[in-house]
Amino acid sequence: MDQSDIGSDLESVLLSEEQLSTRLAEMAAQIDADYAGEDLLLVGVLKGAVMVMADLARQLHHPVEMDWMAVSSYGSGTKSSGVVRILKDLDADLTGRNVLIVEDIVDSGLTLSWLLANLRSRGPKSVEVAAMLRKPEANKVEIDVRYVGFDIPNEFVIGYGLDYAEKYRNLPFVGTLAPHVYAE
Ligand code: 5GP
Ligand code: MG
Ligand code: MG
């Protein structure tokens, strides 16, 4: 899927494919350095983190393991409540492991803060977070996101894993939606 396939539903491109890949390479180099000689398990949070996980993992030199979790956050359509349900749990036992949670976006941080507490209760050696995008709201919660791709404005974004009503996840860039899409 590309810009021509979304047509007038797209308002603007916020981060191009090239910007995303350049930044991911920098993040990967830092992760390689930080975990040199250490075991590392990447935990991708479905479904939004699929693109970040695939691209970040391929830019790493470190021989990581990858596992997946799916969670649903109760709340109204646009705001998460912090009450989270596990839809798919990890296959891996986290005991003594270095865990790096890979996220698409941190907005209120409520989902992530629940996830951090949950994974930390499983006896890992360490738990850190890599997020491609972070919104200003995230500053209100006490979460240390060790690796951040981009700090973005408080706008609803789509693409590169992020959906609007389950669509547009397969855009290779991050963009904003035209207002007429919400109005439909
Ligand atoms: P939080 O608990 O941090 O508020 O919510 C995180 C989740 O909300 C993300 O994993 C994502 O699924 C969704 N989300 C937050 N902001 C956006 C956005 O701008 N666009 C899209 N498509 N999803 C978002
Ligand atoms: Mg997510
Ligand atoms: Mg979504």
TrEMBL record:
<keyword id="KW-0547">Nucleotide-binding</keyword>
<dbReference type="GO" id="GO:0032263">
    <property type="term" value="P:GMP salvage"/>
</dbReference>
<dbReference type="GO" id="GO:0000166">
    <property type="term" value="F:nucleotide binding"/>
</dbReference>
<dbReference type="GO" id="GO:0006166">
    <property type="term" value="P:purine ribonucleoside salvage"/>
</dbReference>
<dbReference type="InterPro" id="IPR029057">
    <property type="entry name" value="PRTase-like"/>
</dbReference>
<dbReference type="GO" id="GO:0052657">
    <property type="term" value="F:guanine phosphoribosyltransferase activity"/>
</dbReference>
<dbReference type="Pfam" id="PF00156">
    <property type="entry name" value="Pribosyltran"/>
</dbReference>
<dbReference type="InterPro" id="IPR005904">
    <property type="entry name" value="Hxn_phspho_trans"/>
</dbReference>
<comment type="similarity">
    <text>Belongs to the purine/pyrimidine phosphoribosyltransferase family.</text>
</comment>
<keyword id="KW-0660">Purine salvage</keyword>
<dbReference type="GO" id="GO:0000287">
    <property type="term" value="F:magnesium ion binding"/>
</dbReference>
<dbReference type="GO" id="GO:0046100">
    <property type="term" value="P:hypoxanthine metabolic process"/>
</dbReference>
<dbReference type="InterPro" id="IPR000836">
    <property type="entry name" value="PRTase_dom"/>
</dbReference>
<keyword id="KW-0808">Transferase</keyword>
<keyword id="KW-0479">Metal-binding</keyword>
<keyword id="KW-0460">Magnesium</keyword>
<protein>
    <recommendedName>
        <fullName>Hypoxanthine phosphoribosyltransferase</fullName>
        <ecNumber>2.4.2.8</ecNumber>
    </recommendedName>
</protein>
<feature type="domain" description="Phosphoribosyltransferase">
    <location>
        <begin position="19"/>
        <end position="164"/>
    </location>
</feature>
<dbReference type="GO" id="GO:0004422">
    <property type="term" value="F:hypoxanthine phosphoribosyltransferase activity"/>
</dbReference>
<comment type="pathway">
    <text>Purine metabolism; GMP biosynthesis via salvage pathway; GMP from guanine: step 1/1.</text>
</comment>
<dbReference type="InterPro" id="IPR050408">
    <property type="entry name" value="HGPRT"/>
</dbReference>
<keyword id="KW-0328">Glycosyltransferase</keyword>
<keyword id="KW-0963">Cytoplasm</keyword>
<dbReference type="GO" id="GO:0006178">
    <property type="term" value="P:guanine salvage"/>
</dbReference>
<dbReference type="GO" id="GO:0032264">
    <property type="term" value="P:IMP salvage"/>
</dbReference>
<comment type="pathway">
    <text>Purine metabolism; IMP biosynthesis via salvage pathway; IMP from hypoxanthine: step 1/1.</text>
</comment>
<dbReference type="GO" id="GO:0005829">
    <property type="term" value="C:cytosol"/>
</dbReference>
